């Protein structure tokens, strides 16, 4: 419910912002299809798959007396920090020459928009560690409540990171959040049209700082997104035609 509330709030802020609302009205039909299908797939079908098929897979493969007691703070840390670091490397791998074609559709959006958060070739979701790691820890933990809270916060931040709702750079909130979080400004540079590599982190910018992949700039990129000659069907299912 928290993630859905974050989505509604961010969409409301988008709709009440004149510039963002204009961008929404000017969107192509293909953009709407990609984003609505992506949100449905990653926001509904993947969680269902995690809670049924993948969870039952671990139930079949692992001992039934697996219950691990982990203090609430540690369970949250495991979800919000440890898994976040795993995702950092997962994301970098998706930008490698071996897997880039499977990820490039996410970078075809020419605007920062919460709707485009889940834009992807559909089966790319099976290569993102969240699908496999989250059900594993939920299965292993005696009480996964705080682990799930970390998942919810990460998902809400993912929506926010792809939006244009951001604190002003000279505000106290910006200065405080920018110490440890990847902000929308940071992620916008990850989506810049120019040949840019960096800002791979999801929740925490610590990983980019550690591995020298962090790029800071208070100004927005000149343009966002990459161009491809892929059809809508290719973008959704088979994105292996070389981009222009």
Provide a compact summary of the structure.
This protein is mostly helical and 244 residues long. The chain has eleven helices and no strands.
Q: Which features characterize this protein?
A:
244 residues, mainly alpha
Explain what this protein looks like in three dimensions.
The chain is mainly alpha-helical. It has one domain (2-237). 55% of the residues lie in helices and 0% in strands. α1 (2-15) packs parallel to α7, α3 runs parallel beside α6 and α4 (72-94) crosses α7 (145-161). The longest helix has 33 residues, at 29-61. The protein is globular, with a radius of gyration of 18 Å. It starts with a helix and ends in a 7-residue tail after the last helix.
Secondary-structure blueprint:
Elements: H1 2-15, H2 18-25, H3 29-61, H4 72-94, H5 100-103, H6 130-140, H7 145-161, H8 172-177, H9 184-190, H10 206-210, H11 232-237
Helix pairs in contact: 1-7, 3-6, 4-7
Shape: globular
**What's the N-to-C terminus distance?**
41 Å
Q: Structural class of the secondary elements?
A: mainly alpha
| Number of alpha- plus pi-helical segments | 11
> Which consecutive residue ranges, at least 5 long each, have pLDDT under 50?
none
Number of domains: 1
Number of strands: 0
């Amino acid at each position: 419910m928290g993630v859905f509330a974050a989505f509604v709030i961010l969409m409301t802020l988008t709709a009440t912002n004149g510039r963002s609302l204009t961008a929404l009205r000017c969107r192509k039909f293909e953009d709407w299809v990609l984003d609505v299908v992506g949100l449905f797939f990653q926001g509904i079908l993947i969680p269902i798959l995690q809670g049924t098929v993948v969870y039952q897979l671990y139930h079949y493969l692992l001992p039934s007396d697996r219950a691990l007691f982990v203090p609430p703070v540690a369970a949250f840390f495991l979800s919000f920090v440890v898994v976040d670091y795993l995702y950092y490397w997962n994301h970098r791998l998706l930008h490698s020459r071996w897997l880039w074609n499977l990820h490039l559709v996410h970078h075809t959006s020419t605007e920062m928009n919460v709707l485009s958060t889940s834009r992807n070739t559909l089966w790319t979701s099976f290569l993102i560690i969240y699908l496999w790691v989250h059900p594993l820890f939920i299965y292993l933990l005696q009480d996964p409540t705080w682990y799930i809270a970390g998942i919810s916060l990460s998902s809400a931040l993912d929506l926010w990171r792809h939006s244009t709702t951001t604190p002003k750079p000279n505000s106290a909130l910006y200065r405080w959040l920018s110490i440890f979080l990847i902000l929308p400004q940071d992620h916008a540079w990850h989506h810049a049209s120019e040949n840019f590599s960096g800002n791979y982190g999801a929740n925490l910018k610590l990983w980019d700082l550690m591995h020298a992949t962090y790029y800071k700039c208070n100004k927005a990129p000149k343009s966002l997104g990459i161009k491809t000659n892929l059809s809508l069907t290719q973008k959704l299912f088979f994105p292996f035609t070389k981009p222009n």
